[in-house]
Amino acid sequence: MNVNLLIPRPAAVRETVRGVVRQQLNATLWRITRQSGEVLGYVEHLGEVGHPYRAKRMLPDRRGFMGFGDFDDLGEAVEALRH
Questions:
Q1: For residue 82, is pLDDT > 60?
Q2: Which residues in 2-39 are b (16+ Cβ under 10 Å) and which e?
Q3: Strand partners, 17
Q4: How many CA atoms lie within 13 A of 79 on its CB side?
Q5: Residue 56's domain spans which residues?
């Protein structure tokens, strides 16, 4: 068990890089948006060795998510959603 997952965050972490906003929602999930507010997708930290970050986009009917790829680091996953 990862003890870090049990520690509540006082406020969401928000970073803007090259016109893309990365908003941390909890210890393992980030919402990726444009500065206009348009949601590009989400990145989830899987806690796995190899490709620990999964980028995903909401399905058009908004009833689920489609995996967009697994990546070695958070920056790569965010960059994939940006394009």
A1: yes
A2: eeeeeeeeeeeeeeeeeebbbbbeeebebbbbeeeeee
A3: 20
A4: 6
A5: 3-82
Q: Is the pLDDT of residue 14 over 60?
A: yes
* 8 Å CB contact between 40 and 32: yes
Q: Please give the tally of structural domains in the chain.
A: 1
| Rounded Cα gap, residues 72 and 51, in angstroms | 5
For residues 52 and 77, give the distance between their C-alpha atoms in angstroms, rounded to a whole number: 10
Residues in the chain: 83
pTM: 0.78
Token reading at 31: 């919402």
Reported as a single tens digit per residue, the pLDDT across 34-76 is 999 999 999 999 987 778 999 999 888 878 889 989 999 999 9
**Dihedral of the alpha carbons of 10, 16, 21, 22, in degrees to the nearest 10:** -50
